Amino acid sequence: TGFNKTQGFSYPYNQPSTSTTTIVLPHHGSQFSYNVMASRDSEDTGSGSGASGLVHHQHQNSQTSSMTAAVGAAGGGAGSGGGMPVGAVAAGSSQAAGAGEAAGRVSNVQRIQQKKAQVRAWPRDKKLEKLAIYSSCRADENCRCNGWKNPTPPAHPARPDTPQPAAPPSQPCRSCTHTLGDHVSHLESAGDDDLDRLLSIVVDVENLFICVHREEDPDTKQVYSYLFRRLRKCILQVSPPTVEGPLGTPPFERPSIFKGVTNFVLHKFNHLQQKDFQMMSDLAKMFLHCLNHWRLETPSARRAHTTVEESSAYKVNYTRWLCFSYVPQLCDSLPHHETTTIFGRTFLRAVFHTLRKQLLDKFRAEKDKMPAEKKLLLLNHFPRFLSMLEEEVYSNTSPIWDTDYRPQLPPHLHNQAAEREERSEKEMICQRA
């Protein structure tokens, strides 16, 4: 299911570039060096950048991916199996989930944000020098140089926390011989906020550059390469980052997973007392949170046990998930969407069995570390909850996936809704008076 070239750039599944680039990543304590390397032609996958604090998550070690948090309130620790890192799991407590996620979310997101904060603190001339590396020469219309290249790059990369003097605007480009100023003349009147937004994209481009060259899975590598080129193009054109084309626009299916699971709770448990209903509602929130922080299996990992048609559909959704949910958690210049709000039943059917198995395996492995109340919730109630949800996910007649479905609220929620409506009417009367 290849995507064709459109609007001057390649979509995922086109043959990736075979060019290679050697990247040196010397460590200084817990930080990575931030090297300015020569930028390359727009058709190349390389950009001219060093690492800016990202350690790529290999699929073989995806459980330690710092994109995700520890399971926290629902058991903590690293997951087990395929692509299973999950986020902080709330067992009826959003505060516990937040604490677990804060404790477990490590390194990468923090390093990237620290790097972006450092870049925002640079003087204006240093910011323009950095942007010149990613900006086409505007000296004349015949110049095809797409990025300023330092004629005298440093022999040894400097420490990331050591400020380096900016090159003067008159410094010639090693490639086209036009000046640094000729590459950023279009940014002379730009405000600091505009420069900072572009520099945030630059940091994301450099992170994706590392991902492209370190990723081993071919499908994932192609998506990283596409996003790299897309963001690179946004800097060249000074345009907002977007993901366009045959991937479509979120949401991809209605009702969403979030809506379907919410309908499920109301459909199956609206007869329960408030305490029991709240427990089921909390289990639903935990399930949705896990799915939002779950690392999907790659298409190649599923190919052996799925049909050609299923593999093709999964590959499209995997690409969408990478572009709209997973990568934007690291590269925040891209718009981010929660997995459970942009995908629906088709997506959930494809991942449910794997997600269920990995979650339950994890909780069983962690049971000795759990307090009794949590053990009862996760090892007794949660499996039954998942079994009931599974029936509705794979049933072709389940009402919870009907876009017109209007579930009956349980009595306590119905009363609360009536009270809110009554208060609202009283407030409107008072305002009119």
From TrEMBL:
A GO term, aspect molecular function: histone H3 acetyltransferase activity
Residue ranges of domain PCAF N-terminal in the record: 111-362
Region (Disordered): 39-78, 154-177
One GO cellular component term noted in the UniProt record for this chain: ATAC complex
One GO-annotated biological process of the protein: positive regulation of transcription by RNA polymerase II
Compositionally biased spans, kind Pro residues: 154-171
InterPro entries: GCN5 (IPR037800), PCAF_N (IPR009464)
Domain of life of the organism encoding this protein: Eukaryota
UniProt name for this protein: PCAF N-terminal domain-containing protein
Organism this protein belongs to: Cherax quadricarinatus
Higher taxonomy: Eukaryota, Metazoa, Ecdysozoa, Arthropoda, Crustacea
